[in-house]
Design brief:
Helix content: 25-40%
Structural class: alpha/beta
Pfam families: Glycos_transf_2 (PF00535)
Oligomer: single chain
Strand order of the largest sheet: 1-8-6-7-5-2-3-4
Number of helices: 9
Keywords: Transferase
CATH class: Alpha Beta
Shape: globular
Protein name: Glycosyl transferase family 2
InterPro entries: DPhHxTase, Glyco_trans_2-like, Glycosyltransferase_2, Nucleotide-diphossugar_trans
CATH superfamily: Spore Coat Polysaccharide Biosynthesis Protein SpsA, Chain A
GO molecular function: transferase activity
Distance between the termini: 42 Å
Length: about 270
Amino acid sequence: MSDSAHATNGSASAVDVAADDENGATGSADGEGGAANAADAESGEYTFDDLSVVMGTYNEEEAIATVLEDIDEATDGRAEVVCVDGSSDRTPEIAREHGARVIEQEPQGYGVAVREAILTPDRPVVVTTDCDDTYPMEALPEFLAEINDGADVVSGDRLYHGADAMPAFNRFGNHAFAAIASLLMGEGVHDTTTGMRAYRRDVVEEIGWTENTGLSAELLIRPLMRGYDVRERPIRYAERLGETKLDPIGGGAAIAKSIVTVCLEEQLRRF
């Protein structure tokens, strides 16, 4: 399969991976996020020193060291790493040993942890990821390049390459979530629930986040429906290390509810 990104019908622009090096990234949207596109013109482009990689962690001692080592390798050890942790195993200890900033929190769900994680650092670019080694940290330079090219949000599209490492039921559900969101927004998206995205700090600070299990979808839907420059970039998705913590039925229902709720709230906000 070619690395050229799929076509989209709405404001979520697909990045042409094959053409990136020669032609730059594609797509933009005008709206509330327009001011963010002026990307620090006086101070120049963002570097890894401006980057925070954040995650919620819960009993991921099998994978956390690998993820943090991959982040260090991809960013020359210059990115800040923040873990909001509710673990009962050695995850926070391992994270600290690898130089991460760990904020301990009673387990309250995915969204509560990730919301704390994205709002904690003060560097101008924030990247969310999961701590189960499913996401390609070697793609961090490409995500940062998209931000420097003017994107407000860069969303990793796991489904473009097929996501064969993902359980079939989860893969079907993620396609369904994207279809529902696209219909309700009136704008095409390909992967609504990916955990790997880059954001300009002002985007995460200006929007009020309300969801828990469905936060990953909310983090895409609200910026897109408010006119920010949102781009989907194909990424490879790997088999997770350790056991999954998400109930596919209960969690899926909560995500679907969040998608409907957030889309309707954003539609009403336009009136």
